[in-house]
Amino acid sequence: MCQTSRQITVTVSRAHSDEPDLLSLEVYPEMTVETLQSSIEAETSIPPTAQHLYHDGNLITDKAQTLEALHVTNGDMIAMHIREPRNPGAGSGARASQQAGGAAAAAGTRQRQPGEPDPEVIRLQILGDPRLREEAIRQQPQLASVIDDPQLFAQFFNNNYDRERRERQDRQRQIAQLNADPFDIEAQARIEEIIRQERVMENLQNAMEHNPEVFGRVHMLYVDVEVNGYKVKALVDSGAQATIMSPGCAEACGIMRLVDKRFAGVARGVGTATIIGRVHSAQIKIGSLFLPCSFTVMEGKSVDLLLGLDMLKRYQASIDLAKDRLIIQDVEIPFLGEADIPKDSEEALAEEPTFPGPSGTTIGQRSGVVSGPEGQEGSSAEAAQVPPAAPAPASAPARPQPQTQTQQQPLSAATPAPAAARSPQPPAAGGASFPEEDVQQLMALGFPREAVLQSLEATGGNVQYAASLLFQV
């Protein structure tokens, strides 16, 4: 039975050519992929071993399949990427045609080393798998703007690959230099620090890849209450020992006149705050319940009302995160949504200090929130040059807590706590000046002065964090 012939177009993408070549072929439905590759070889002198064929974005791996089984119809387009043979003596004809077709582009493109992955093969695999593409863009947002351009993707891929290779070589060279004298205690301590930082960054990368939810922003738990008829958004904080109210809220509720100043003092926790006094009893409405409650009036709080452990235990309250409810005496009070909570906490998160993370991201030092690369001037350059580093010391004052820390304060799983408290010197605007002793200490590790000054400025003058940053470069 005679089969109707079909016309297809094969786009031939070469590693060192800006524009793909177009090849028109007459094929038949019963033709196998192996036969198609032989036809392409007859037209282009490219051996089948160097041909990677893609149809509808999917790599064709079964050479025995027919074009009809692959649903190749008349007028379809098949993409072919040429894989360079790794044997220097093989495929000389293919390389000659590649060099002739892409000599101008090859002048500014580096040659891949044996064993180095092919950027175009990786790009086509990502394009052919929507889930893989979504995952790759989530891990590296910059891919979204280059994935559809072979040249830009190859440049992006090669830059990342070269940077990682240089970092590995630098670390190996540093360790080799330090191992020159195995009895040098300081050298062994530096090697230990290098290895520790590598494990820290490996842990961070694994967390971002396998548990990205730990870097999401966690919103605090607020409920609507009424104190003496005045509506307030109250923060539910099981980590606070007492129920706390700000002086402004006490004035608005009309209970400031009931403050017993004999209970004045200073609360010490994560910082200090002045306690004005205590309101021994006032009515609070939570849901449909009217409950008596005592309040500690305290300055320096960023929330109007904080329901502490004393009030929660007194009424045997239950925080049900599965239902997103606060349950008191079988009455369920819904927690406020993200749009309804006070904006003070959002502004505090926006102003928190950050440190650079992988792929140009930034990570909040206190909350652990990961943000994508900002579109500000110089952000792309910083993302390409500044590798992930240890977190810089916090510059914003900590919020005071009465005797116990707040359990719901979001913590970063990748933020190590400093071993000892140290007041970093803030970098001066325009040109930071740091103690010469600190500069010389870092230069003694083998780093140039300019890199030392940049790392000190990036870490607020903290020598330990600056050293960690330098070892990652």
Automatic annotation (TrEMBL):
Region entry Disordered, spans: 83-120, 346-437
| Organism phylogeny | Eukaryota, Fungi, Dikarya, Ascomycota, Pezizomycotina
The record places domain UBA at: 433-473
Q: Which family does it belong to?
A: Belongs to the DDI1 family.
Query: Please, which domain of life does this record's source organism belong to?
Result: Eukaryota
Q: Does the keyword Kinase apply?
A: no
The biological process GO terms on file are: proteolysis
Q: Where in the cell is it found?
A: Cytoplasm
User: Low complexity bias located where?
Assistant: 93-112, 379-423
Q: Which SUPFAM superfamilies match?
A: Acid proteases (SSF50630), UBA-like (SSF46934), Ubiquitin-like (SSF54236)
| Domain spans labelled Ubiquitin-like | 8-87
Listed under subunit, the entry gives: Binds ubiquitin and polyubiquitinated proteins.
Which key words tag this protein in UniProt? Aspartyl protease, Cytoplasm, Hydrolase, Protease
The protein's name: DNA damage-inducible protein 1
Entry's InterPro entries?
Aspartic_peptidase_AS, DDI1_N, Peptidase_aspartic_DDI1-type, Peptidase_aspartic_dom_sf, UBA, UBA-like_sf, Ubiquitin-like_dom, Ubiquitin-like_domsf
Q: What does this protein do?
A: Probable aspartic protease. May be involved in the regulation of exocytosis. Acts as a linker between the 19S proteasome and polyubiquitinated proteins via UBA domain interactions with ubiquitin for their subsequent degradation. Required for S-phase checkpoint control.
The molecular function terms of the Gene Ontology recorded here are: aspartic-type endopeptidase activity
One cellular component (GO) term of this entry: cytoplasm
